[in-house]
Amino acid sequence: MYDVEKVRADFPILSREVNGKPLVYLDNGASAQKPRVVIDAMTHAYEHEYANVHRGLHYLSNLATDKYEAVRGIVARFLHAPDPEEIVFTTGTTEGINLVSYAWAAPRMQAGDEIVLSVLEHHANIVPWHFLRERQGVVLKWVEPELDGSLDPQKVLDAIGPKTKLVAVTQMSNVTGTLVDVAAICRGAKEKGVPVLVDGSQGAVHRPVSIPEIGCDFYAITGHKLYGPSGSGAIWIAKERMKEMRPFLGGGDMIRDVYRDTVTYNDPPMKFEAGTPGIVQQIGMGVALEYLMGLGMENIASHEAKLAAYATTRFKGLNWLNIQGDAPGKGAIFSMTLEGAAHAHDISTVLDKKGVAVRAGTHCAMPLLDFFGATATCRASFGLYNTKAEVDKLIEALELCHELFA
């Protein structure tokens, strides 16, 4: 039995007030709040266990190294990945995708080669490929979603041509909550010999993930959306792809030997991790993933599905509210605009006065907003600790907006 009130008690910040109102935090799509167990683990690490990793033989260095390296196994379990050595630590999904762009794609692509993208993508899964377009003449092929925000896997597969070298696609839209059938895309792409990168920033937060079932070549996650600290993240990379990658960053840990006239690189995953890492941040992410697995990702998905269904029903009663993307099976992420002159920033400001925290703007997804004909939207994104009562508070605040701006 999923006890949301018990879950909420694990998050200290949820007991505070904002503008004299109980906090209703609905900006989880941008960054989630942290449970006490993560906060305590990071504090403990700094107070009692901190030292640099991999480089010392003293007690604290060995302890910190053990705690830090154990997180690879935790990430592998969370993703049902076959081998912890396929996990590369990053500062988040953005770095993970840039790693693939620089270390795998750039040396393998030339002018005229193609990368297939969907219009649903976050800028983190667009801009690194634009670098290759600008610098190497790589062609970006765009696949548009349906009007309800859904993405037909066959349309993605149909976009693959003889010059396609990569498909890069999100598992869940951060704007609409659209869930993409990435497994179907990976199966079809594999038949055509084309690797697939999956942006799991949102998908891994809201659904159980199994790398073998998805069948991708790269899968990136970010810690701060997974109820862990900012500056933490990881990317799973298939071993055969790792062998094809050159180093991205140069420095300590990613080398074996350095001389005046030569350098020998370390084995993966260390080959792609240069310099002193975010030691405590990664430890915190590991604790956060253990917390999620303790709750059960299936239980979290079920809870959020009920929230999404309830919110959808309530939204339908507001005939002056426009929801961008209402695809079946979508996650509990809703982007909206009000009919009339109210700007998303105005809506967000009014909601904040009621203690309701939402996001306003383009959500780092300008091609998708352009597809919907919007310059900005107001986004309410729900998480594992949100409740139906908070949906009601959101509705009340939106009704006040309508009264003010109608």
From TrEMBL:
Pfam families: Aminotran_5
Enzyme Commission no: 2.8.1.7
Key word Transferase present: yes
Alphabetical UniProt keywords: Pyridoxal phosphate, Transferase
Enzyme class: transferase
Residue ranges occupied by any Aminotransferase class V domain in the UniProt entry: 24-394
Obligatory cofactor(s): pyridoxal 5'-phosphate
InterPro entries per UniProt: Aminotrans_V_dom, Aminotrans_V_PyrdxlP_BS, Cys_dSase_SufS, PyrdxlP-dep_Trfase, PyrdxlP-dep_Trfase_major, PyrdxlP-dep_Trfase_small
Catalysed reactions listed for this entry: (sulfur carrier)-H + L-cysteine = (sulfur carrier)-SH + L-alanine
Transferase as UniProt keyword: yes
PROSITE patterns in the cross-refs: AA_TRANSFER_CLASS_5
Function according to Swiss-Prot or TrEMBL: Catalyzes the removal of elemental sulfur and selenium atoms from L-cysteine, L-cystine, L-selenocysteine, and L-selenocystine to produce L-alanine.
Family: Belongs to the class-V pyridoxal-phosphate-dependent aminotransferase family. Csd subfamily.
Protein name per the record: Cysteine desulfurase
